[in-house]
């Protein structure tokens, strides 16, 4: 009980100093809990949607042609309407209706603006059915009754100011279709971001499937007392199970959930990873806080020991303070995490992914995980200071000798730090020399972890040398004030090392990702300059429809077009091995010239002869192929043919590495016209001297198709740079949490350091040091500590990034590009971080009463 009272008294006595440490705990716990609440809420949203939209039992045709963005042909797999009647005859069926759904569409308004989501959500088109009433209700107008009518969901109508009477044009593989809005339907559950349009059944069949009397799936309703499982079994006995997939409502919902789980899991674990980094940085803040508090209570600890307190009791007293800090910070962090989740939901809504606070999901595990993490991390971080406090002898403490300095511990720290760093550097070197990316990535991961830990351990040793170098460059010009700032930073290398290490971690990751991102852009740019001979690239969401292709071919000023289609196939090589799902690049003969594909054996142009193809050299080596061999190719949704190997292409470079080429004419001989994949990309070469004219003409030709984009090589490079930049900016934003915690660490260290040096500050003021000089001294000390952490972090991060680039070189990204403007900007920004962190401690130091400060014990 005495230990608890003592801990409570000390905790409340230093509540101001504990507050900054508590903020670190709050932020870290909030990020973890916010991530869990956000991901659980997203899962709940999709679960409700999938449960509401799935029929009791659903029948769909088996398909091998579907991709994540829909069928390659643009036409969904369908089945004859007669199957509806067959399924309806199964025992236990109350109702059966044919339905049509396609996501291979683009919908534009009267202004030719795409009304579909641009953030990854699908645009869906289909027929209005009774099953849709489970998830939607018509809130304005009526459902479509003929070919000139269409209904749209309310969310899309609100976003694009659509109203009844407006016209929408639906662009599909079968053609363009314009209709007038006659109804608006509202979701009964949250719509995460899809745009949905409905037609009458006949129109949907004609415009989406290109055929009458066919459906993409059948919705079955069970009779009263018949379970979904029983109904499935009954229908399975009626229909051909080899031709159709039959699923219960739960199975359909689970499949739909699985289709989005990959993206959700990546987002969830990435955010938890950044939360872990923030926790790691927060550990240094907590260690520093308790180390300094223990040092400032040395005499108090001596008195406790002198009157009979044991080492365990002193140790326990400090750990109980940490426990109080952990509990307080974790409780606040859990609450802040829920608020953060709501903020993330609002942010995602602004980006097009709609989430409702009505679906906010806080499972019981979330606060438990947050509390356990916060408390355990805080107590563990305080263990070393608590252990050092217990080692203080009563007589040394009463003399105010401070915590014992262990020279052997410092030497041991240096040896361990050097050893870890050395092993980490060797691992990084092994990664850079690896012949296979998988093997090298293991060495890279080990090298990153070991060098990071090594730098953390050896930080106090490095502080002495690095701080002196920085001081020579920056502080000596400020005379005695600068020299005092240098001595203050060097006074406790362990403290300086721990404070700098907190900032080092975040900046090391920033530098590493900057190097990797910049190298990716530089490598891709070099590869484009080297490999792409075409003037223009045309691509977009989905494939080019026949109308879009016709519009392109009529463009003046273009010498030729090279189309690219991705044709799915299973390939059997002469060694008898079957490569499932191999993608054949079916292109025009000019494509390999526009992309400058080189052959290591044979002639690439020969691959465009009748029943001929090429493969990459890695595939050829794996199966011991040579020019002239015959490969059996089973085309998806088509026939099986025997194609002659006419060329083996080089795998050098990153563009279409390992691609297998054949002529579009060859693919068309084996794949029916209605199942032939749409053109995914077109390369275009302008006529001599007609580049500018052709560029403008191509854009004009595709004005009616906003889902496709015409880019010259400069545009393409800028697009690539912007995509990488957006990804890095998002990562930097998440790393900002760790950097904020590191800044709090600098603030806390300086604040406690000012308290620790109260008497010294009073003496300096008494002998003539002005308030302005005192504040400058503290600001300079902060800047030096921040720059120390920045130097270590940036140096470490550039080493990681350079090693990662060596691994990427195995995939064709061979250019190492150090983004010096970014590195220099981050280093200079670290100086401003130091200045900002010192504002409050410097201000408080300047306001000290000189006489009271001198009288401080």
Description:
The chain is an alpha+beta fold and 857 residues long. Among the domains are: 1-54 and 264-404, no CATH class; 63-242, no CATH class; 558-686, no CATH class. It contains 25 helices and 26 strands. The strands form five sheets. Strands 17, 18, 19, 20, 21, 22, 23, 24, 25 and 26 form a ten-stranded mixed beta sheet that branches. A hairpin with a 2-residue loop joins β11 and β12 (175-187). The model is unreliable at 400-406 (pLDDT under 50). This is FtsX-like permease family protein. InterPro entries: ABC3_permease_C (IPR003838), MacB_PCD (IPR025857), Macrolide_Exporter_MacB (IPR050250). The chain crosses the membrane at residues 269-295, 318-344, 364-386, 411-432, 452-475, 496-516, 730-755, 782-802, 822-843. Residues 63-75 have a biased composition (Basic and acidic residues).
